[in-house]
Amino acid sequence: MIIHVTDQAGENHELEGLEGWRVMEVIRDWGLNIKAECGGALSCATCHVYVDPAWTDAVGKPSEEEEDMLDSVGDVRPTSRLSCQILMSDALDGLKLTLAPSAGKD
Amino acid sequence: MSTEITTDVVVIGAGPCGLFAAFELGLLDIKCHFIDILDRPGGQCAELYPEKPIYDIPGFPVVTGQQLTDNLMAQIAPFSPEFHFSRMVNSIEKQPDGSFKLTTDADEIFYTKVVVIAAGGGSFQPKRPPVPEIEQYENKSVFYAVRKMDDFRGQDVVIVGGGDSALDWTLNLQPIVRTLTLVHRRDAFKAAPASVNKMKELVAEGKVNFQLGQVAKLDGEDGQINHVHLTTEAGDLSIPATRLLPFFGLTMKLGPVADWGLELNDNTIVVDTEKFETSVPGIFAIGDINYYPGKLKLILSGFHEAALMAQAAKAIVSPGERVVFQYTTSSTKLQKKLGVA
Ligand code: FES
Fold first, then answer.
1. What is the ipTM of this complex?
2. FRET partner for B304 with CA separation of 20 to 30 A, picked from A57, B100, B143, B203?
3. CATH code for the domain of A96
4. Are A102 and B161 in contact (CB < 8 Å)?
5. Which whole number is the average pLDDT over B39-48?
């Protein structure tokens, strides 16, 4: 399955992901600019992405804990999600998202 | 006057791998001092995920970051390592006799034969919000911590965030500032309910302005801000301000380590896999901060690295002394050191 990721520089990448992987892991594995400092423990918010509006329903809403974590970045939008909290699945094949500035390595 | 401390080993970073290094060094009769930027032991385990379960520590089907830290502290207690918290190592200089001189931002000087860098992802630093050109205002009118309350007296202060730091400083600074605006992206706070209530009272009394939104842009000159621009659901808004305090928590940055002349590989320190020594003999690096082919950033790998590093450190601390390899299960000598025999 494929996800389409636009990085902070505006460049588009088509990434191959595996069922059950976290979207963060796919992005990190392909070497894009994502810090993902806590490794997916929902403790850092440095895996912050904006989900394409066409995909927000399929991806779903952040949990209460994820909302709390999103308080620690300064660039939240209505489509914000932490990519370590999104699991790859058939329903998300073709998912489109953009890396938030706050997800970048310095 | 700076405080001067002379020791055998300084461990930079009191996370799990650094802590375990004190155990392995202690078995070899080497005493160590810890320096850590946080105010308590545990590193990432304490700062990022104290309550999160870890499942891959050998012998522990599940353990939280805090439990692991507490256990390690108990395990190394017999060796009474000394801890220097809330400071950062600024520089490491090699001395003519091969030892090292370390300076910290707390005005201390350490003279040590061996340096062990166990700094994980680097040092924890405040998260910088993605606001254009914020750097040029930092430490002049934008601060990530309140060091001197007086810097805020009579100022127009904007505090950003919804956690305990943002709320606490809203309450503490309100009596001395000219105006105070608390900015948060939503009307929900992850802070002590008592502080939230107190803040709401101040808002009701008109002493604090609460504004939903996020900082988009700063206006000012020569490091001095004069307006903070916010994006809010109702549109853009500009607030006159002379001080900005963003509180978005901490993140790890390599920091001064980058300037110590060590060979690096993409923000990690290159080491060999026999001694876990860096490109500078006598400086070792263990845990998440090091790099070698096949490296896995796992706590258990760091423990192994600590054990091998300790052997090599012993050769530097006590040159010529023969080290007999022993097990804690059978050696009364080791058991005496641990206080169990
Ligand atoms: S990787 Fe830390 S919250 Fe997602």
1. 0.89
2. B100
3. 3.10.20.30
4. no
5. 90
